[in-house]
Design goal:
- The chain is α+β, with helices and mostly antiparallel strands.
- It contains 9 helices and 15 strands.
- It starts with 6 loop residues before the first strand and ends in an 11-residue tail after the last helix.
- The structure holds zinc ion.
- The site of zinc ion has 4 residues, from helix 3 and helix 4.
């Protein structure tokens, strides 16, 4: 492709020396990712991946596209069984998991980069693998277009054990079996494994419910999620694509709240809306799901105490209550219907009129006067 630009760097470094492979050096990195002319990527070249600083990063300076690659060539073959790990994302002190590689694979070559074999998938921004065969050629390949730039921080070759854990489980929905998996990278967070195991058990239980509450198609709904742990975040969690990012401080200090946060974020993953609009519905329906799962938890009780009927489009809990009120009043799965329309890019505000006979504005006025309070038990549909 004409737009594809090859940048190549050649250098010798002692960085990758290990006791077992003292002469191993990275000799060349190339990429097919085109960088835009943007001041922000200045000084963020490929050399940042191997400068020995795990915080500095190479920045693509452009949205990642399917098929783009970053290729690494070593001075000699990395022996079988070595742990190869590549860290992406801006990293701690740099907005953490932003710009991590979420849909990408790690490949290796047996024939001097003529053909490639996939040896790992990126999870939680990182790819790690015990080298399945000796090779001096590795590459990252992007498998899905992304609206984000990509950042690669670091590459290590070691004898360290693998730290990514995947839990799997099966669930039945409408008589059909669905296999689910969740992967977390516990490097530096081994103490959180117990908290997370409980949460990932919940994942298998709650997935079919959220799919139904949001009217999602179980055949296409995300079934393999990544749980990224980060130390610095202004909020407890967020989700993007199939990745949920959790703040470690929140996990440690508020383990009981974690399950509710997890359900809210899982709702976002299953929503898979192409846009964040209308934002009151995006956040309101995620809190609606959280409430339906845990109507008796302290979160729901304190949320009821601080609800405000005058702000139905106030996002989060106030919007969740507005949705619950609509469903209680009109006895229809309104959230699911609107959610499907959003997912399929067919949403129009007139949908509320079709469902209730009232325009959104009229519904808002009725709700404001209603003094509605959601029940403290799971609403049945
Ligand atoms: Zn949210």
């Amino acid at each position: 492709m004409l737009r594809t630009l090859f940048i190549s760097l050649i250098f010798i470094t002692g960085l990758l020396k290990t006791d077992a492979t003292p002469d191993l050096k990275l000799t060349k990195i190339t990429t097919s990712i085109e960088s835009v002319r943007d001041q922000r990527v200045k000084g963020r070249g490929l050399d940042k991946i191997v400068d020995g600083d795990s915080k500095s990063y190479y920045w693509t300076g452009g949205q990642m596209q399917v098929g783009q690659v970053v290729t690494f060539q070593f001075s000699q073959a990395i022996p079988i069984g070595k742990t190869v790990k590549i860290y992406t994302g801006l990293g701690i002190e740099n907005r953490e998991d932003d710009d991590s590689f979420r849909d990408a694979v790690l490949e290796s070559s047996k024939d001097d980069a003529k053909t490639w074999q996939q040896i790992a998938t990126f999870h939680c921004g990182n790819a790690e693998v015990k080298a399945p065969f000796a090779s001096s050629h590795y590459r990252i390949r992007v498998t899905k277009n992304s609206s984000y730039w990509g950042a690669i921080r670091h590459l290590t070759i070691s004898d360290n054990p693998l730290t990514q854990k995947t839990i799997t489980g099966a669930t039945i929905l409408n008589g059909k079996k669905y296999q689910l998996s969740a992967t977390v990278d516990l490097e530096g967070y081994a103490d959180l494994e117990k908290n997370l195991t409980k949460t990932t058990d919940l994942y298998v239980k709650v997935w079919p419910k959220i799919v139904q509450w949001l009217g999602a198609n179980p055949d296409t709904a995300v079934r393999n999620i990544d749980i990224s742990l980060v130390n610095t975040l202004k909020h407890p969690a967020h989700a993007s694509g199939h990745t949920m990012t959790l703040l470690t401080k929140h996990l440690r200090n508020h383990p009981t709240d974690l399950e509710g946060v997890f359900v809210h974020e899982l709702a976002h993953i299953i929503q898979a809306y192409p846009t964040y609009q209308p934002s009151w519905f995006v956040e309101g329906s995620a809190d609606y799901v959280r409430y339906r799962q845990f109507p008796d938890r302290p979160w729901a009780k304190s949320a009821r105490a601080r609800m405000n009927n005058s702000k139905p489009l106030g996002h989060y809990w106030n919007s969740a209550c507005f949705l619950l009120w609509m469903e209680d009043t009109y006895k229809k799965p309104i959230t699911a219907t609107v959610s499907v329309a959003l997912q399929q890019k067919k949403y129009k505000e007139t949908l509320f009129k079709e469902l209730t006979g009232k325009s959104l504005e009229q519904l808002i006025e009725l709700y404001k006067k209603s003094e509605y309070r959601p029940k403290l038990s799971s609403p049945e549909m």
